[in-house]
Structures are given as structure tokens and as C-alpha cells.
Amino acid sequence: MQQLLKLGTLSLALLTCQLASANEFYSADRQWLLGDWNGERKQLEDQGYKFTAAIMSQAATNLAGGYNDDNTLENAGQLTLGANFDLSKIAGWENTTAGLMITKRDGNSLTLERIKDPRASTLGNTQEIYGRGKIWRLTQAWIKTGFDDNRVQFKIGRMGMSDDFNSSQCEFQNLLLCGGQLGKSIGSIWYNWPVGLWGTNIKYQFAPAWSLGLGVYEVNPDNVKTQSNSDGFNLDMDNVEGATIPVELAWKPKLAAFNSLPGEYKVGALYSTAEAKDIRSGEMQDGKYSFWLNAQQQLTQHGADPKRGLYISFNGVVNDKATTFVESTQQLALWYKGPFDSRPNDSIGFGLANYVVNDRATDKQIATNEGRGYYSYDAIASDYVPIQRDELNVELNYTYQWSPAVMLRPNLQYIYQPTGVKEVEDAWVAGLSMKVNF
User: Fold this and answer.
1) pLDDT score of 23 more than 60
2) Which of 306, 308, 312, 357 has a CA that sits 20 to 30 A from residue 70's CA?
3) Are 98 and 85 spatial neighbours (Cβ–Cβ below 8 Å)?
């Protein structure tokens, strides 16, 4: 499995294959790397059965800086196997679909190996697909049905929370620049991909551009265990500690100020009923809360192609200061789809994102060190607690869409104050993401 997810061999094969004709293995218009199964794949989709298989690989090497500047290359990989069923075609259940997804992660993180002080709590990551264990997981197993001309949609089963709330685009390799932000700062109660958990949600489109969503998801530490593959398929609710309840208002306008180009704006809040520990005192609180804002807008359109042009997004999260180590996160990203007429499916991306560590947590770290006799940074003492503040992540990338089946994304990242520790030298990282759809 680990060899399968290695970047080098497959990347080299892809890069050395030149200008294949339309029906060959690496042709530029090939939808799936393994083809259409002599037409059977398209026929199955027409009947309501859609199958997916993909490998994502993210490599990163440290160019300069970080806690340990000894150069190395680390690679993280993810295998995804999925199926989607249109039950209106299969069983005659109108406006009803079901999803099944299994994932396997492997590899190592450059951030853990070189960038961060190992004594400090992890904040960002140069490879967003690293984390939640090197195990097989049942990531999705849900059913969704619509009512009232599909204006009301009800979903129940095993799923990730950012599948339906606090979701965002992922045009980057850096963790905080990719997808929903809540799982990066309140991971004990908000579970993103690849973790699946029991939950349900309902969404109501009460106007053409407006919708309101409400969800209820279990808070169960068993869902993030990583000791064995059985942990990834544990479906019991024996150790549920409470529920996370998100609500989100979404607006999808076409504003005249942006030449009627599409946008999406979301505000949301959550409350968790699970007990949470006070950051400073250690006392247990009845629950915790968070608020968020997601905004994405297409700013320009290139010619007559509605997909080409400049896009911008902003994501912000504010967490409960009493109980959360990361008080807030902010993300701003720009990407241009179709920068060249000869490469209409490529894109150029630039983003920056910031973690803000709760000053109550910083004060506790300072007090802990002073109690142990440390009044300045000690690079070697094992019981010294690094003082953490803000961490800024920046990424510039180019997405090379070889075909619908193959994507390559070289990128350059800059990490200011890794894990918020000012004594650790700012880091420069070169990365390469690759995705292959089979």
C-alpha cells in the first residue's frame, strides 16, 4: 500500500508521457485513467450507479528554516474508493441518493518531521491529507432524500461534518488553505474527512438563492481512534459524550457588482453539548461554541467560458475562548482558472491563512515554564513548553490538469512562526500534489 502511494514512480511516468492520442492511456481528454470499461461505466451511471477510485499523493521537502533544517522529502497519500447510487433510477425513490466511501491514508508529514518544535501542539500542516491515522476508514455511508420539489433535503448516516457545513473550496496543498476550517481548530468535536460519524441534517431552500441548514452529529472519541483498521469501521455509540449542533445560512447570489457572476456566502454557528475543559483552569464546562463565515465569489470571466476567470474566497472561524486552544482562524485565497487558452483547465492559486492561539493558553504556557524555572526559550530541555502565538501559512501553486483523470500541483509554501513559536525559524517548503482518478 505504501509503495502504491509513493509519488516518484507514477509522477515520472506521467511527466515523460507526451501528447498521447485521444483514446490512449494518458490522453488529455481521458475521463478515467482505466477508461470507460468498453462503455459499461457510462451505462452504469445512466442506470444510477456511479463508482469512483482515486489516489491523492502530496510530497513536501524543506528548503530552508524550520525547527530542523536537515533537508528531507516526506510523502503523504490517500486512497479513496466510493460509490453513489441514484435511487430514483434504481428503486423509483424520487429525489433520493445514497453514498458510500472508504479511505486509506499513509505516509508521513514534513511538518511533524522537520518544521515544528516537537514539544509544541501542532497547528498547520504542509500536507493537508496527512492525519487521522494510517488506517482504513468508512468515511461515508449515508442516504439523502428530498421533499417539496427537493426544496427540503434530509440526510442521515455516517458522514463528515464539513460535507454539509462550513464547506469550502480546496485549491491548495497546505492544510489551512484547503476546505472547511473548523476541523483544523476544534478537531475534538468537529470531524472532517476522512473521519465518518453518525449524524443527520436537514436543509431548506426557502428562496431561490437562500437556504438554511441544521444538523446533529455525535461527539464520540472512538471515531478518531487510530490503533487498527477496526477503529475506522467502529459503528457503535457506546462512548458518545454529547452532540455537535451546527446551523448555517447560505446565500448564492449573482450580484450586479460582479457582473452577475456566481457567489456563495455562508454564516454559521455551532454548539456542542459535550463537556469541555477550560483552557486556563482545567475545570469542566458544560459545552462550547463556534461561529464562522465562508465567502466565495467569481470576480471575472474569461471570454465566453463561465468556468474560466478569477475567484476569491474568505473563510473565518471564531471559537469559544474559554475552552479552545486556537481562538480563531482566517483564510484568504485567490485562484485563476484557465490562465492560458492552451490550458483552459489549469489554474494558478495564491493563498494565506492564519492560526491565532488563545492568549489564555499562551499565558498558561508561560506560567508553566516559570514554575519550572524557565524564563526564555530552551531549545533542548524536554520539559520546556514552547510558547505559542500566531502561525501564518502562505502558498503559491500551479495546477496542471493533464486530463480529467490526472492532476499535478507543484507549490511553494512559506510558514511564518511555525506552530506559533517565534524562536523557530520561518520555513520555506516545496511541494507537489498529484491526484489520479481511476
Assistant:
1) no
2) 357
3) yes
Cβ within 8 Å of residue 185, ≥6 positions away: 317, 319, 324, 325, 326, 328, 329, 355
CB crowding 380-399: b at 16 or more within 10 Å, else e:
eeeebbbbbbbbbbbbebeb
Q: In this structure, what DSSP letter does residue 111 have?
A: I
Q: How far is CA 406 from the centre of its chain?
A: 20
CB atoms under 10 Å from CB of 130, counted, come to 24
pLDDT exceeds 80 at position 12? no
**Considering its fold, how many domains does the chain have in total?**
1
The pLDDT of residue 2? 47
Written as nine digits, the cell of 35 is 477508461
- Would you say the pTM of this structure is higher than 0.85? yes
pLDDT at position 233 is 95
Side-chain half-sphere exposure of 117, counting CA atoms within 13 A: 26
Q: Which domain holds residue 285?
A: 7-52+60-437
Q: Tell me the C-alpha distance between 280 and 323, whole Å.
A: 8
Q: What are phi and psi of 366, to 5 degrees?
A: -60, -45
Backbone angles phi, psi at 311, to 5 degrees: -120, 150
The CATH number assigned to the domain holding 101 equals 2.40.160.180
